[in-house]
Design a protein that fits this description.
- The protein is of the alpha/beta class.
- The protein has a single domain (2-194), classed as Flavodoxin domain (Rossmann fold), CATH 3.40.50.
- 38% of the residues lie in helices and 21% in strands.
- It contains seven helices and seven strands.
- A five-stranded parallel β-sheet has the order 2-1-3-6-7, sandwiched between helices. Strands 4-5 form a two-stranded antiparallel ribbon.
- The protein starts with a strand and ends with a helix.
- 32% of the residues are buried.
- Residues 1-191 form the Flavodoxin-like fold domain.
- InterPro entries: Flavodoxin_fold (IPR003680), Flavoprotein-like_sf (IPR029039), NAD(P)H_dehydrogenase_qn (IPR051545).
- One of its GO terms (molecular function) is NAD(P)H dehydrogenase (quinone) activity.
Amino acid sequence: MRILLVLAHPLENSFAASVARTAKESLEAKGHTVDLLDLYREDFDPRLTVAERGSYFDERYDSSEVSVWVDRLKAADGLMLVFPQWWFNFPAILKGFFDRVFAPGVAFDHDRAGGRIMPRLGNIKLFWALTSTGSPWWVVHLYMGNPVRRLLKRGIAAFCGKGLDFRMIALHDMDRVTEAKRKRHLERVRALVSRI
């Protein structure tokens, strides 16, 4: 399986980078091909351009400025996202990746007759998010309703693909966890990813 592994964290020595490294090593050890897309290191610009927004409902979306990333998404069999949750949401660079790359003609089509979205990412069979939050589990789930999971599963995965293996693996209370708990989380990631 060819996995597009998307990392969205500005610090090269971050815990997210450790998670991405762990996932990559585990996937490759099982014989999968991994395309690591480090949004910060590749200087991905999250801002939707005038041409992109202007062509959003046209016959053909102008993806010329992001064609390299579009091609990588289209070549993948699976998508694995690694990112921290900030303010109960995606980092801006990852949100921009969705805005610019998960676009009409790439991730979905507009149904001209009814306004629905028709999925186009039939190549993607696996959609996983490996994430962390600064808040405790109860705040994310009980108070906030786990917005990132809801956005990913219902808003992106369901609208862009069908029959996906969707999972979100999160480390909560990140700002206060011990080094031992971080290591246990990396082992959990390794074990889960090794089953793919």
